[in-house]
Write a structure and sequence with these properties.
This protein is α/β, with parallel strands linked by helices. It contains six helices and nine strands; from the N terminus they run αββββαββαβαβαβα. Strands 5-8-7-6-9 form a five-stranded mixed barrel, surrounded by four helices.
Length: about 270
Amino acid sequence: MEEIERIIETRDWLKSHGIDNIEVGIVLGTGLGELASHIEVEKEFSYNVIPNFPIATVEFHFGKLICGKLGGKRVLAMQGRYHYYEGYSMNQVVLPIRVMKMLGAKHVLLSNAAGAINLNFKKGGLMLVDDHINLQPDNPLRGPNYNDLGPRFPDMSQPYDGRLNQLIREIAQEKGIALAEGVYASVAGPMLETRAEYRMLGRFGADAVGMSTVPEVIACNHMGLPCACVSVLTDECDPDNLKPVSVEEIVATAKQAEAKLTAVYIELIKRI
């Protein structure tokens, strides 16, 4: 089965189960599931029952697709995402994003947990992603292009939508929420970086590093789907003072910060 056929099969299954006319797609990353509790749920499915959705293998990702109302909009939220390091192909990683577009989504909001490379940024803070550096070894556009999705050579001069980013800045300021802004580097993982790698990323111009998001942003840009992303900074990656950090600590920090991100995104959804 070709990839476009898988996307259509998944879309048709979801439509047959009452999921259609989506306005906003949402991807909730590591430790950032709280936003889902604010959705007026209409339909909810575990990934393992949806055709062509892989099973989420990361223990702190819930693996649920939730459809309902939030901020007066009809939303479709991924509570947990797929990662290249889990062994999935890039097409599998971005299939839900492509399906969101086919179900009518006009915007996609992403989130992730990231390590702060910029030493002016502190653990527990938020960073609006303005640009990225893709250091993953593959991307979802390699292979045959499906013209029904987008062009062979999509432009990436502004991968994160300027209007959405400006709204996020305004909302954070109104709510008194500190919001850094910077460049997100996406690496394959799943291991964390060495001191030398943090130094390299900083010299490349990265302000934060993580293991997700960029494949989904590439897919959004390919389809002309405006997207935005906010990172929760879960650890400080100072190569001269680097201490061991556990994934449990990263998730705990993300959970402490997620209320701020949730407040920003709920208000953003109302305004778009």
